[in-house]
Amino acid sequence: MQLEIRERAVGDVAILDLTGKITIGEGSVQLRDSVGSLLDAGRNRIILNLGGVTYVDSSGIGELVSRFTTTKNTGGRLKLLNLPKKIKDLLMITKLLTVFEIYEDESTALESFQ
Amino acid sequence: MMLAENVVELTITSQLEFIDLVTTLTDNISGMIGFDEDASYWVNMAVRESVANAVEHGNKYDPQKSVDIRYTVGPDELKVTVRDYGEGFDPSDLPDPLDPQNLLNPAGRGILYMRTFMDSVEWQRHPEGGMLVSMSKRRTPPKQNDEGERTHDAVGN
C-alpha cells in the first residue's frame, strides 16, 4: 500500500497520521476517502499529520488543496502538521504555503482550533 | 577525446501502476551518474509528472497506447524524453497555476514542477503523432585529469 492513514481523535479534532506516498492513483484516492469519511460523519476539524510522508506529486498536492477547500466549505478547518522539507518546498513553489495553516507541533495545532 | 552517450529506453502501457517502475529506473540512473540526493529526488519528480501526464492526459489511459521513455546520459547532462500517442496539446494554453485565481485549482501544477526541477523542458508534437517532452538536467562539472582531459566518475565515461 502506497499510503497508510491512521485516524485518532483529540477532543473533537480528528488527526490523520499519514505515512508513505501521496501520488496519482491510490495514495490520492485514499486521502480523499479518509477526509470524506470524516466530513460525512460531521467531523470537520481536521489535522493532517504529514510527518511520515516521503513523497507527494502534483496530484497529491492537488488532493491536499481539494480536501482543504471541501472541509472549509462545510464550515470546518483542515490544517497541516509536521511538513517534511520537500513538501514545504513544493507548496512554496506553487504559492500554497500561505493558503494552508501549517504547524510544527501537535499541541499548537490543536490549540489553534480553540 | 569524444565521450560516448549511454542510452536506456523503457516502454510502458498506459497504466499508473507502471509509474513507480519508471521512477525506480530514474533513481538508478541518477545514482549511477552521481546526482546528489536532492537532484535525484527532483529529477524523479519531473519524470513522474511527465509520465503521469502522458498516461492520463495524453493517452487517456488507453491500454493500446504506450508511453516511451528514453534516457540519454551524456558527458554534461542527462536527457529524458517522454512520448505519448495522444492528441497533443499546447502548453501555453494551460492556465497559470500561480495566478491567484488558480491557486486552489486541484490540477495544473505538474508542468510547473517539471520546469522548476529540470534545467530545460520542451514540448513538441511528434511528427508521427503524440507529444514528445524533452527534459535535461546538467551533471556536475567534470574533473580535469593531468592531461587536461575531462573525466567522469560514472556512466558517460
Could you give the count of β-strands of chain B? Answer: 7
Strand content of chain A: 25-35%
How helical, in percent, are the residues of chain A?
40-55%
Strands across the major sheet of chain B, in which order?
A: 1-2-3-5-4
What is the CATH H-level superfamily of chain B? Histidine kinase-like ATPase, C-terminal domain
Query: What's the overall average pLDDT of chain B, rounded?
Result: 89
Number of strands of chain A: 5
What does the main sheet of chain B amount to? 5 strands, antiparallel
Helicity of chain B, as a percent range = 25-40%
Order of strands, main sheet of chain A, comes to: 1-2-3-4-5
Q: How would you describe the shape of chain B?
A: globular
> Low-confidence parts of chain B, pLDDT < 50 over ≥5 residues?
151-157
Question: Terminal Cα separation of chain B, in Å?
Answer: 10 Å
CATH topology of chain B: Heat Shock Protein 90
Explain what you see:
Chain A is 40% helix and 32% strand. Chain A is α/β, with parallel strands linked by helices. Chain B has one domain: Heat Shock Protein 90 (2-Layer Sandwich). Chain B has helices at residues 19-32, 37-58, 110-117, and strands at residues 6-13, 66-73, 77-83, 120-125, 131-138, 143-144, 150-151. In chain B, strands 1-2-3-5-4 form a five-stranded antiparallel β-sheet, with helices on one face. In chain B, strands 6-7 form a two-stranded antiparallel sheet. The longest helix of chain B is centred in the first third of the chain and has 22 residues, at 37-58. The N and C termini of chain B lie close together (10 Å). The interface between A and B is medium-sized, with 21 and 22 residues.
Secondary structure topology:
The complex is a heterodimer of chains A (114) and B (157).
Chain A: E1 3-10, E2 13-22, H1 26-40, E3 45-56, H2 58-73, E4 77-81, H3 85-93, E5 102-103, H4 106-111
Parallel strand pairs in A: 2-3, 3-4, 4-5
Antiparallel strand pairs in A: 1-2
Chain B: E1 6-13, H1 19-32, H2 37-58, E2 66-73, E3 77-83, H3 110-117, E4 120-125, E5 131-138, E6 143-144, E7 150-151
Antiparallel strand pairs in B: 1-2, 2-3, 3-5, 4-5, 6-7
Helix pairs in contact in B: 1-2, 2-3
